[in-house]
Design a protein that fits this description.
mainly alpha
Length: 153
């Protein structure tokens, strides 16, 4: 491998490190948004790191034929540190805004369906309430008590 190819491969590993850190911010926003419980957090961590390992390995296959040398680890570390020092805040805000926008789109998409459901089920909900009220009234008359708890005299 020539010096140029090695420098290019090192640059690719730096980009892989930046991308990995960017994806980690994505996962952090998911954790915060979903408020994961402890056991779900551990499962999520495991799945995230497995997926990230597969992605990094795939990127290494494309970038430098899958060779893993010391400069690969150094490049990933340098890329991650670069991201953490200079880009982490912007990346985190980017993912937060993406999630907010996605939530807004989801709510806007589902709102007509929710409204239609409310309109269609209103007669059933109303009749259920009326039935419960009538049951209480008839049950209280049979037992000799009024709905407010006092006896009939």
């Amino acid at each position: 491998m020539s010096l140029y190819e090695q420098l290019l491969a090192f640059g690719v590993t730096i980009v892989i490190g930046i991308g990995a850190a960017f994806l980690y911010d994505f996962y952090r926003v998911i954790q915060i948004t979903a408020r994961l419980k402890k056991w779900r957090l551990h499962i999520g961590d495991l799945l995230f790191w497995i997926a990230l390992t597969v992605l990094v390995f795939g990127a290494l296959l494309l970038g430098n034929m899958g060779e893993v040398r010391w400069y690969v680890f150094l490049g990933i570390i340098v890329g991650t540190l670069f991201y953490q020092k200079l880009l982490a805040r912007a990346g985190f805000i980017f993912w937060q805004k993406c999630f907010r926008f996605g939530g807004w789109v989801l709510r806007a998409t589902l709102a007509p369906f929710a409204f239609t459901w409310q309109v269609l089920t209103w007669p059933f909900r109303f009749s259920g309430k009326v039935t419960r009220i009538l049951k209480r009234r008839f049950a209280s008359k049979r037992s000799g008590h009024t709905p407010d708890g006092e006896g009939i005299e």
